[in-house]
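User: I'm writing a tutorial on reading structure tokens. Could you give me a worked example: one chain, its sequence, then its tokens, then a sentence or two explaining what the tokens reveal?
Assistant: Sure. Here is the example chain.
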Amino acid sequence: MWQVVGHERAVSLLDHSLKSEKLPHAYLFVGPKHVGKMTLALNLAQALNCDGEEKPCGQCRQCLRIATGRHADVHAIAVNDRTEIGIDHIREMQHEASLKPFEGRNRVFIIDGAEHLSHEASNCLLKTLEEPPPNVNIILLTVNERLLLPTVLSRCQRLELRPLSTSVVEQALIHRWGVPQERARVLARLCSGCLGWAVAAATDEGLLSKRGERLATLTHLATVGRGERFTYAAELARQFSSNRESVQEVLSLWLGWWRDLMLTKGGSGDFITNVDREEVLHSEAKKYSLTQIKGFIQSLQQAKEQLEHNANPRLVLEVLMLALPRGKEAKETTPSKI
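And here are its predicted structure tokens:
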């Protein structure tokens, strides 16, 4: 049984390829963070090694060992605290791929955050994609396929995983994870269709606390001058050098907030994401014109894209701070850490 929630088209295509024994040796799963790419990749690894009748059964020894991360033939490569996936990691993968499966039928390599492959690592990986060893499957996971080499893209079967509907997330939280209905409703709106975040937030209050701190920082920055804004930009740029993902998360959160301000300002408050802060949004929306809100949304989108393309982070973030409009009748708040 496929464990991934939603993504019926992707599951159907994979299931058909498995049953017809025409599965490509390399896949590219594209979609936002926490949308279910890793879950689907592990499900596929289970299906390739499953001993049950209906693959993946989720109950056999192969499936259970893959689910717990203890299968000798299933390997995941991720960025973690590094800023890129280097050539040494791909060379190690190639060595493992040259060996016969140890306990299953297929060796499966999952590269999580493939957009962080260095140029040398990408070229090294290309050799394996062009001449894959027998019984080896490679699955690339990415939030931004534009950062991958075209030659790598051309050798992978692409599957896009789009954000789930709010209702699908809400029902999954209630029925599969036992989240109370009202909490599930709020988390389903906050997660922007990415179930993995909602599941984590249901049990980890720290995620919601961090979100609150980051939004408080944004509100505070709109009240202060250039000096304090530049100090924050420098702090964020330093963090970017060691953890790009966290900075992108900050900007994505801000982008969602300013989109909610636009919806609130335009009288479409029923469609906001931050449903637990509706009153604050109404108050903040009064401080800006629609032109200011739209302008900063565009600045945020540009900053995110520039950072993805390796622009100077401090310069990008300082320009973003200059673009942040100063709200009318802004109240002083205490800044929080990133």
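What the tokens reveal: The longest helix spans residues 244-265. The longest strand covers residues 136-142.
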